[in-house]
Amino acid sequence: MTGLYGSGVSSPIAFELTDVVAGPPDAPILKGISLSIPVDGILAIAGPSGSGKSTLLRLLNRLDDPVSGTITWEGRDLTEWDPRELRRRVAMVFQKAPIFPGTVMDNFVVAAPDIDLPRAHHVLDHVGMPRELLERRADRLSGGEAQRMSIARALLTDPSVLLADEPTAALDGAARRTVEDLGMEVAASGVPIVWITHDTAQLRRMANHAVVLVDGEIAAFGHLDELDVHGNPRVRELVGAGGSSGARPASTPTSVDESSEGSP
Amino acid sequence: MNRADIGLVGLAASSILIAVAVAISMWRRLGLERELVWAALRALVQLLIVGFALQLVVDDDDPLIFSGIWLVAMHLFAAYTTWRRAKDVPSVFALSLLAYSASALVTLGVLFGFRVYDLEGRTIVPLAGIVVGNSLSATVLVSRRLFDAARERREEIEGRLALGLSAADAFQPVLRESLRTALIPQIESTKAVGIIALPGAMVGLILAGTDPADAVRVQISVMYLVLGSVATTTAVMSLGISRKLFTSADQLIRRD
Predict the structure, then answer these.
(1) Which of A 56-95 lie inside 8 A of B, CB atoms?
(2) Shortest Cα–Cα distance, A83 to chain B (Å)
(3) Strands lying side by side in the sheet with A68-73
(4) What's residue B196's pLDDT?
(5) I want to staple A184 with a disulfide (CB 3.0 to 4.6 A). Which of A254, B69, B210, B229 is the partner?
(6) CA A36 to chain centre
(7) Residue of chain A whose Cα is closest to the Cα of B248
(8) pLDDT confidence tier of residue A245, bands split at 50, 70 and 90
(9) pLDDT tens, position by position, A148-159
(10) Do the chains contact at A110 and B166, CB–CB below 8 Å?
């Protein structure tokens, strides 16, 4: 596979999946997928629920192992990485932000035991949370704040890439947009994101490239301009082609560097 | 009649109390008559057998090996009971057998090592019985709680794993809570002893004619024994279980 930029433009390939079968062995969810995932800007993973999006993401930082097939990251088989080091470099945020007992600061300490106040303030600034929330009990945060805290926590491990498993699905409209904006800022600041969403409007706001999963198989993979005219109407629907939200910004500050794409 | 000797007549008379319970059950239509009679009969038969078997180990000239066999059988049975009450917990039989044995080793090691009691059948078997008997429900409780918590608090645990924590570190807060939950009732009942409850061992000694001051000293050592054994058993058990919940790659194993 030449990667999602097509037309021979080389791109950094971070994850390489070969014949990956995953899920319960007697009823696998991912049914043998092969894929090179270049990590650059934001790559969206779209597909209906149950199509294997989360299953795929959980393989990438080894929260789960595939039943068969291999996955490499930076050219090295995932099983050769120390799982703890891998997870700090391939960080993950979840649909429902896990909240650890104690304050926001206590939550930061889990990720960075030696964190000091300036660094805590810095990361709060980064995710757009007021500094006084540092001493707030984490279970008193709103849904959007909790998700931003969990992104901050993940960033404290200095990851090379961030996996995001529908991080806005449990949030209401306004909070959803702030987390979305944060995702785009994080990607723009140099931490690329693999972002699962089944919200086509969000997909078009955030990403230029998408993997479309249907029934545990890759239905399509490429630039939205290609997916919008894909032969399979299911793919066009899942990326929101021609939908009301089709007004994708010509250029977002965040997503894949437009210059590397070649002209559409 | 000697204080220590309840004859058959005495036994029959005390069974009137079962009749009272049965009468209450019938009067209030609790439907527990059969259960009550069955429980009373089982207790009678089991204890008669135990009493007979104890004859074989408690006499001064009985070889210690009989006590050893008794201990092994008791531990196997305790592990079996634990397994029956927590079947879905992985390796629960082997783990609880290990936990009970470790606890017996530590607690009896202290009691006999410091010569609190003389090492003989008369002391080994009852003391080991107290260790196992009191640890059993706490062990079942902590096993169930840990196992359920691994499922119910999956998101929190995986959240820590995803930040690069080891399985042991990711599970530590859950482990801590489960162990506290198992130990707190024991601490509470230790605090309440003498005020709310007169412990069975002391009551038994006093009824059997022992001087209350002596009975109290025995009781105190028994209570410390119970606390120590519950703490040891649950600690070994929970460490064992938490290892079974994760793979060697620090992954929480799915069991749904």
Answers:
(1) 61-65, 79, 83-85, 87-88, 91-92, 94
(2) 6
(3) A30-38, A13-22, A68-73, A76-77
(4) 73
(5) A254
(6) 15
(7) A83
(8) very low
(9) 999 999 999 999
(10) no
